[in-house]
Design a protein that fits this description.
The complex is a heterodimer. By secondary structure, chain A is mainly α. Chain A has twelve helices and no strands. The chains are: A mainly alpha, B alpha/beta.
Chain lengths: 279, 260
């Protein structure tokens, strides 16, 4: 009962604010190229879809985003695994990774467009670049966060490092990896759009830019609306997958784990720390 | 009387490790033996190195001195003929109860089909029948610890090393688990080294109680508990039981109390 009432209330609130927006624009005579009324945005949306224009550009942007997401997160996951599991890789590579990470990746978009052209490749690379880091960092943290007691248990069963990786570290890292994917999905969309701004022949970002030149602000609003819906849907898909994969993770259920993680007074971490100290 | 090789032989074992405040001696000159099929409890205040001792026996930590033998062979790392139960259940949340119990089988690449029958049998033995396909978060603390015990038994190790396995449980569950453990021990005839800081628990469960002191961890006494088997909870009210508890507690008091 309360949920249906809440849905009705939030719809009412939306309708009220759209009406208020429409009213303010009309009463104060705001120019359409400054702030178009919602009715004009809806008209632009309709025209865009009816002519097939939006669908065409939407397909391009979606493809760029998903390819960039896939490539970037796969590379981030693999490199994160390498850094977490091999201290040579960490020693020689990680400083550069940190350096590169502090750079705003979207600032590379012009360079990437120069190198890879106006087509799909440059957009995918830019999207992959921004999607890469959350996966890298989260995979690293996740693989290293395996509970010391669980590692001890595996060792006491004479498990090999490979077994500890596949049976403990990797499943243990999944909540972190999935959280990284969540962020990477949205970042990939941003990366694709920014690359389209810099130079493209198609895509929703290119469309927004071209609408700026024709002062088609209601058109821009309608594309922004599409982008936010696309972002929401992509995010939802990742969340759905996450809930499926992490059915066992207490943070997915919003309840505390009943498992008692106890603090042992003995130096559990000592042998491991000693091993890692040998550089 | 027995002439067979002892299950566990510990000769002058010592353990020192570096800490932020300089070197710490966790164990010093600890010597004892556990016979095949014997239930031995190690009791001592927190920080007396009893968990360190267990980790050395489990092959998780190297000793800094002395020698530890399992069935006559020196411990050079983790072994497959021991089962370890830790303070926390240490279950994998992505595995069901059955799959958690079968973890040693998966790790040691044993015949899964055959061990699945063993696992189901054991799960029933510890009173978890019907929970095989549940996940750890669906179980209470006591049930989780029973899963951990079942997991330590599934590959049929000759020895069980238990590190305060019931320390986190409430008093009622703990007594119940003590009874269960005794029953499993009688049925399965394992050698058990059981670490605890509860003197009554040690006396109730063990054939022998090793008493340890803290900093450095040293063996103070080796007390034989000559109470019949199986022991019911009412044994705790008998004068013999009280005498044992009192005698062991007196050792600590002489050294300045349990938590000195």
């Amino acid at each position: 009962m309360t949920t249906t009432r809440n849905v009705a209330l939030s719809l009412l609130l939306l309708a009220a604010s759209l009406l208020a927006w429409e009213a303010i624009v009309r009463v104060f005579g705001v120019q359409a190229f400054i702030l178009p009324p919602p009715s004009q945005v809806v008209m632009a949306l309709y025209r865009g879809f009816a002519s097939g224009l939006y669908i065409k550009h939407l397909q391009v942007t979606l493809l760029e985003t998903i390819l960039g997401f896939a490539v970037g997160s796969a590379l981030g996951f693999l490199l994160g695994t390498a850094v977490a599991m091999n201290r040579y890789v960490e020693y020689f590579l990680y400083p550069y990774i940190v350096m590169f990470q502090s750079l705003p990746k979207v600032a590379l978009a012009p360079l990437i467009v120069i190198w890879f052209g106006l087509g799909l490749t440059s957009k995918v690379i830019n999207a992959a670049l921004v999607a890469f880091f959350p996966l890298l960092v989260n995979t690293m943290v996740g693989l290293r966060s395996a509970d010391e007691d669980r590692v001890s248990l595996m060792r006491s069963l004479s498990a090999s490092d490979t077994q500890i990786f596949w049976m403990l570290r990797l499943p243990n890292a999944l909540p972190f990896v999935m959280a990284g994917l969540d962020i990477a999905m949205i970042l990939a969309l941003i990366g694709a759009i920014v690359a389209e701004f810099t130079g493209a022949t198609s895509g929703l970002g290119m469309l927004i830019l071209s609408m700026t030149y024709t002062m088609d602000v209601s058109g821009q609003f309608s594309v922004l609306l599409i982008l936010s819906v696309v972002g929401l849907l992509l995010n939802r898909i990742v969340s759905l997958v996450r809930r499926r994969v992490l059915f066992w993770d207490p943070s997915e259920k919003g309840t505390e784990a009943p498992e008692g993680e106890l603090v042992t007074p003995t130096p559990l971490a000592a042998p491991r720390a000693a091993k890692e100290g040998v550089a | 009387m027995s002439v067979s090789i002892d299950a566990i032989t510990v000769k002058a074992i010592g353990k020192r490790y570096a800490s932020r405040h300089g070197p710490v001696t966790a164990l010093e000159d600890v010597t004892f033996a556990v016979g095949e099929g014997e239930f031995v409890a190690v009791v001592g205040p927190s920080g007396c190195g009893k968990s360190t001792l267990l980790k050395i026996l489990a092959g998780l930590l190297p000793a800094s001195g002395g020698q530890a033998l399992l069935r006559g062979t020196p411990i050079a790392g983790p072994r497959r003929d021991i089962g370890v139960v830790f303070q926390a259940p240490v279950l994998f949340p992505w595995r069901t109860v059955l799959d958690n119990v079968l973890l040693p089988v998966d790790v040691q690449r044993l015949d899964r089909a055959r061990h699945e029958r063993v696992a189901l049998e054991l799960i029933h033995l510890v009173g978890l029948g019907g929970f095989e396909h549940r996940y750890p978060w669906e179980l209470s603390g006591g049930m989780q610890q029973r899963v951990a015990i079942t997991r330590a038994l599934v590959h049929d190790p000759a020895m069980l090393l238990m590190d305060e396995p019931f320390g986190a449980l409430d008093a009622m569950t703990r007594e119940h688990m003590n009874l269960e453990l005794q029953r499993i021990w009688i049925e399965r005839k394992k050698t058990v080294l059981f670490i605890t800081h509860s003197i009554p628990e040690a006396v109730f469960l063990a054939d022998r109680v090793l008493v340890m002191t803290a900093r450095p961890g040293r063996l103070l006494d080796d007390v034989r508990v000559d109470l019949g088997r199986p022991r019911g909870l009412e044994v705790m009210n008998t004068p013999e039981f009280g005498r044992h508890v009192k005698a062991i507690r007196a050792q600590f008091n002489a050294k300045g109390g349990l938590d000195a």
